[in-house]
Write a structure and sequence with these properties.
Layout lengths: L15 H5 L5 H5 L14 E5 L3 H13 L3 E5 L2 H11 L3 E4 L8 H10 L8 E5 L4 H9 L4 E4 L4 H27 L2 H16 L19 H11 L4 H8 L3 H15 L4 H10 L5
Parallel strand pairs: 1-2, 1-3, 3-4, 4-5
């Protein structure tokens, strides 16, 4: 893999703008636009896992030149420990590695509460169609066979980051939609259940036996409190994607089709406070 020289080397000559525009006066500094004062976005955190030292060093240097924050690991076992500490935005991993290969690392990531939604790019010498299909079926987000163009790797990293941002933004938008109406409905349900007779809905005894995991039970309680997905994710220190996964499982286990139905079911059967 050849790494092209940096295209941003300084020439030493002053730029046209520097020659024609003198330094702003203090008065201009005090009128700086809000956009100029905006807090810059933190760099994208990458975890690069590969057992080839030369490639690992070269790719790390190139990605850092492109503005990424890069942490490296020698194999999947070391990569798993680094991922738990770093909580990276993207994982780039080789497939064939000692101790724990790329598939093993991917399986651990997808099973973890905090890392399950992390985009994973496979970077490997195995480039046959069957290998690419196996990678995608295992849950990889992208697959780049070696040898590769480093600019292509950068473009693909940017692509999975943008895709992840779109998914999170869309999830947040749906979580925010009609939250006021849902909160009102939850209040009405609680009122009916608490009224006992007089035409209200009676609270049933909690004799229904549902196999909730501890995390599903926690999500159910917070949904019943009227929290949005992003609030639940923040409370439980997990991703919005994971919260959506738990809510979907709750729908299936309770036979409901909406958050309001889910809350009503949970209150009627004494599954939440």
């Amino acid at each position: 893999m050849s790494i092209p020289p940096s295209a941003g080397a300084a020439s030493g000559a002053p730029s046209p703008s520097a020659a024609t525009n003198p330094s702003p006066s203090p008065e201009h500094d005090s009128d700086a636009s809000p956009a100029a004062e905006a807090t810059p976005r933190p760099p994208v955190r990458l975890l690069l896992v590969d057992d080839e030292p030369g490639l690992r060093t070269a790719v790390k240097a190139y990605l850092e030149d492109e503005g990424f924050q890069v942490t490296t690991a020698n194999d999947g076992e070391e990569g798993w420990g680094a991922a738990q500490n770093l909580l990276p935005d993207v994982v780039i991993t080789d497939v064939m590695m000692p101790r724990c290969d790329g598939y093993g690392l991917l399986k651990r990531l997808r099973a973890d509460e905090r890392l399950g939604g992390t985009p994973v790019i496979f970077l490997t010498a195995k480039g046959m169609t069957a290998d690419r299909i196996a990678g995608f079926q295992a849950g990889a987000d992208d697959y780049i066979p070696k040898p590769f163009d480093p600019d292509e790797l950068v473009a693909r990293v940017h692509n999975v980051v943008r895709r992840q941002e779109r998914l999170l933004a869309e999830a947040a938008r749906f979580a925010d939609a009609d939250i006021g109406a849902m909160a009102k409905q939850i209040t009405e349900i609680r009122s009916m259940l608490g009224s006992g007779g007089g035409g209200g809905v009676k609270k049933l005894t909690p004799d229904v036996k549902l196999d909730f995991t501890p995390r599903e039970a926690s999500v159910l309680q917070l949904v019943a409190e009227g929290m949005m997905n992003k609030e639940i994710a923040r409370r439980l220190e997990t991703s919005i994607r994971n919260v959506e996964k738990y809510v979907s499982r709750l729908f299936i286990k309770t036979g409901t089709a909406s958050r309001t139905e889910l809350v009503r079911y949970a209150l009627e059967h004494g599954l939440v406070d």
